[in-house]
Write a structure and sequence with these properties.
By secondary structure, this protein is α+β, with helices and mostly antiparallel strands. It has one domain: Dimeric alpha+beta barrel (Alpha-Beta Plaits). Helices cover 30% and strands 29% of the residues. The protein has 3 helices and 6 strands, in the order E-H-H-E-E-E-E-H-E. The strands form 2 sheets. It has a 4-stranded antiparallel β-sheet. The protein is flat and about 45 Å long. The two termini are 23 Å apart.
Length: 110
């Protein structure tokens, strides 16, 4: 589960909103601990660096996030779910007041 949010809106909410979101994540972890397999918060997009491969195979390194979007990837949870429906039910519990949760399965290589 990739957690996207509007960093500017969250910053505008101040310490009170940040505290509320953190409490929400703590409650989420407590409610879903048996399903969690990992996760971390990420630093602001201002700290991002992107390595991109061009059509000619040349690599370029640029400051900034992967894509220019209003919502930035703020963190992720790795969960174990029986199916997509269960994963969506878990994702609906993740606090993301100014964003979205992307649910995506892990790719398994044989």
């Amino acid at each position: 589960m990739l957690i996207y949010g509007d960093e500017a809106a969250i910053a505008k909410g101040g310490d009170e909103l940040e505290s509320q979101i953190m409490k929400g994540h703590m409650a989420f972890a407590e409610s879903n601990g048996e399903k969690l397999r990992g996760g971390h918060a990420l630093q602001s997009v201002s700290t991002a660096t992107t390595v991109r491969s061009g059509a000619d195979g040349a690599l370029t390194v640029t400051d900034g996030p992967f894509a220019e979007t209003k919502e930035a990837l703020g963190g992720f949870y790795m969960v174990e779910a029986a199916d997509l429906d269960e994963a969506i039910a878990i994702a609906k519990q993740v606090p993301a007041p100014h964003g979205a949760i992307e649910v995506r399965p892990v790719r398994v290589f044989d």
